[in-house]
Amino acid sequence: MTSDKKVVLVTGGNTGLGFEIAKALYQSEIPYEIIIGTRTISKGEDAIAALRKEIPQSASSLSVVQVDLNSDASLEKAIETISSQHGRLDSLVNNGGGSFDADIQEGKMTLREGFNATWDLNVSGTHVLTTLAVPLLLKSTDPRILFITSGTSTLTETENTTHPNLARLNAGPPAGWPKPKVGMALTAYRSTKTGLNMLMREWHRILKNDGVKVWAVSPGFLATGLGGIGSESLKKMGALDPSVGGQFVRDVIQGKRDEDAGKAIRATASRKHDTMRYDSYEAQDVGYACAALSVIILVSRVIISRWRREPVDLSFVFVVLSILMIIGRVIANNFYLRFGTTNEVLKDPHVSDYYDTSRLKTGSILVLLARVLLTAALWFQICLLLLFYSRITSGITWADRLTKTAWITVVVTFIAVVLATFLECRPISLYWQIEPNPGQCVRAYVQLLIQGIANIVIDLLLLFIAYPLVCLRKRSLSEYISLYSLFALGTFCIVITIIRVVLIFNEDSSQTTRSLWASVQMFVSCFVANAPTIYGSLRVAQRKRSGHRSTPGYASGEPLSRPSRLERDSWIKMDEEIALARTAPGVQYNPTPPFTTAIFDNDNIYPTSQSRP
């Protein structure tokens, strides 16, 4: 009996990932004939009852067939049953398999027995079933074969020691023989999944001219019962809910990864309620990119400053120090993301003795160093903005007072953040201690909050200081747009700080999340702090080239030896001629105290003193 519904066989469909694959298909609006292959018929029937109870309404149908991957007779009978009932097979999901490494480790099986059993089940049995199913698959208009593999099977991942879970699997045990029986033994299982990847490539070669699409699908680290470890324990180790893998396999069946046929593909979904988690590679890539952009901005400022023969002042020193801080932080990030940290390892309650504690200690210390370097770099950007604002609002009494308050706040908050960095865990050795558990201090929430709140407070002070640029006289629409752009940049810094803090708390202070968003905040701060000065310098140079240089006391177009400070800092369409007049030879600028206001002329802002009437 044939049906218009797509016919899908899921081996091992009564439990774990197989059950979730069947459920994902059963929930789909696309109708399927879902065949659950299981060693024991009664367990398949129980799985069907559970699915129907959980999903009362479905466009799909469910049935069960006995599939014993260790028995050729069982496999032949299963294919005969499918042929007689459905006449074809649209998708074969080779999910059935197992691991006997724990049995080898516990002495329940000899090494040869365990390896042979694992290969027979995971590779040989799967190959036999696939061979028997090919005639039915070729009767389909859209045949598909999926081999469920593992991320632990790829040869490149065996060199990965940056991700905590892979670090546990890939770290070498201590020297000597015999090796200690600790951790999760997966030697036989991993080797069979590597063999399964090659089997997939062979079937892709054999059937590609027949129009059969073949994949090896890695569903991710899932909280299934594989290996004898409970699902709750696996979740504490960072495993995803099995439903994530089931939905990914359903997407492959429905054609969403057709462009990757013939390849091993990996689920990219993240932990449930944890959709922003990043891996160390992403954190490193973002760190490199943001650091490169930040250094380009700062170096551009230095080059422009030297080109314009500006004097070496405090802002120049802050720029050079910022470059050094950013480079130092990138180096520290590179190593601690590779070595791992105690904070990441403690999220795994089954900590393996295979962890290199010296590398963990080094990584944890480098995290502290990176946090100090980040704080210094961020605060240097604040200092650059303070210098900029203090110059263009000089003489405005309340702005001067706010500026002094801001400088005091910068010094006090910097000391507070640095002290929190090193003193949140006391003694400091708790930062790299694994046993006994050092507690919540290694997550550095106090340091994060102090740094975030201080950032926001100082950014608000900077916005208040800049307020005179808008309020002291009426302006044109284009001028208001330029001025409010300045405020928008300052507000954006506050938004980025809030996003960073919220995400880090949401991710349980994941170090990769902290590193990635710290890099983003660093770049944004560099841009906001330096863009006005770079833009102003380029604008002044452009106006000079256009001939706008005549000033009182100057012959028109006569070259200047060095730009004035106000000229360097002017950027909101300020009139450089008036700024230059204050420093031109033969021009005296003698303000008469004690009354101070700010004069705006041709959009130039400069302080002047007038006698009270």
In short:
The chain has 613 residues and is α/β, with parallel strands linked by helices. The chain has helices at 16-27, 41-54, 72-86, 101-105, 111-137, 164-170, 187-207, 231-236, 242-253, 280-307, 314-339, 342-345, 357-392, 397-423, 445-465, 468-471, 477-506, 511-545, 565-569, 576-581, and strands at 6-11, 32-38, 61-66, 91-94, 144-148, 213-218, 264-266, 595-601, 604-610. It folds into two domains: 6-266, Rossmann fold, CATH 3.40.50.720; 280-534, Rhopdopsin 7-helix transmembrane proteins, CATH 1.20.1070.
**Count of DSSP strands:** 9
CATH topology of the largest domain: Rossmann fold
From the alpha-carbon coordinates, what is the Rg to the nearest angstrom? Answer: 33 Å
Which CATH-level-2 architecture of the largest domain?
3-Layer(aba) Sandwich
Quaternary structure = single chain
For the biggest sheet, the summary is: 7 strands, parallel
Helix content: 55-70%
Order of helices and strands: EHEHEHEHHEHHEHHEHHHHHHHHHHHEE
For the termini, the CA-CA separation is: 104 Å
Structural category: alpha/beta
Round the mean pLDDT to the nearest integer and report it.
79
Residue fraction in strands: 5-15%
At the first level of CATH, the class of the largest domain is Alpha Beta
**What would you give as the CATH superfamily of the largest domain?**
NAD(P)-binding Rossmann-like Domain
The shape, in one word, is elongated
List low-confidence stretches.
Answer: 269-276, 348-355, 549-613
User: What's the number of helices?
Assistant: 20
Number of domains: 2
Spatial strand sequence of the major β-sheet: 3-2-1-4-5-6-7
